[in-house]
Amino acid sequence: MSDVTLDIGAWIDLLPEPTLVMNAQGTIVAINSSGREFFGSSVLNRNLSELVATPPEKLNKWLPLWQQATQMVPGTLRGHQGQKIEVEAVGIHHCQPPLILLRLFRQPRFLRQFILQRQQFQQLQQQMARQTALIVELQQRQKQLEAENRHLQGVSQQDSLTKLANRRAFETCLRSAWRESATTYTPFAIVLLDIDHFKRYNDTYGHLAGDRALQRVAHAIKSQVREADLVARYGGEEFILLLRHTHHDVAICVLERIFNYIRSLGIPHASSPVQPYLTVSAGICIVTATPRDCPMAELVATADAALYEAKRSGRDRYVLQTHPRVPEPVSSSQQIQSCS
């Protein structure tokens, strides 16, 4: 801003009416305090056409006339609310090229209304900006909470050591499988599987080796079941399987694959009286649901009874039972023939 403009700015600041100084293109180069209150504080270097709703063609006629005037000439502008703004203008001819001094007529009531409306509009904009920022913040927080809830839900249903489902997840899936079986009249199987003489394994090789063995057995079991089946760690060295749409022969074939895979790992178990490598025993319960509520404890107890029988019969084998009947135990060696 030139010294001349600074002098004009200091002079017009003494005027009570809203007053501004423009160049021939209508760009504002100086404005007094009353003008800043009327038009807003950020008006310097803006064009008059941005502050009023007067058509550009009319402004383009006014500007040359005002620049050439040697005494105040009247004019009319139009506000954005459609109201008339009476003004008077004169050229400042000691500047080259001449500038334009534009002054609004004192209209207290109109000015107060105009300023009040502008202030209300600014307050509304600020309030909307704050609300928008709050909405964005709440949406981000909601997404964060949803992600945290999904993580917590996953953690709450997952065993931390083996990354299998945990007991809670198994119980939820068992209720669902029971309802499905009652509707479709198709059986499913529950398998309770236990690592043979695992306490001796821990005593011989240490608990860190025991944890690695649990992880390897968990992976072996998981790799031999179908995608729709569930494998969970039931507690300690026990695993529990939920095999959907599974008859006796299908359950037997799945268990044969699991047993053979674990044997093929050849995990040393020198303190086992069964084999020099790690083995497992299992109890299978074949279930066909009825419309009553899922008798979870009974089903698991049936599988557990079959597991007990497998251990009593020498381990490294499985026994199959049908809920609620309990047939003769069947060893794994006998089941190979049934599966082939």
UniProtKB/TrEMBL annotation:
SUPFAM superfamilies given in the database record: Nucleotide cyclase (SSF55073)
Coiled-coil annotated spans: 121-155
InterPro entries for the chain: Diguanylate_Cyclase, GGDEF_dom, Nucleotide_cyclase, Rev_trsase/Diguanyl_cyclase
A Gene Ontology BP annotation from the UniProt entry: cell adhesion involved in single-species biofilm formation
Gene3D superfamilies hit by this protein: 3.30.70.270
Keyword entries, A-Z: Coiled coil
Gene Ontology cellular component list: plasma membrane
Domain GGDEF residues, every copy: 186-323
Protein name: GGDEF domain-containing protein
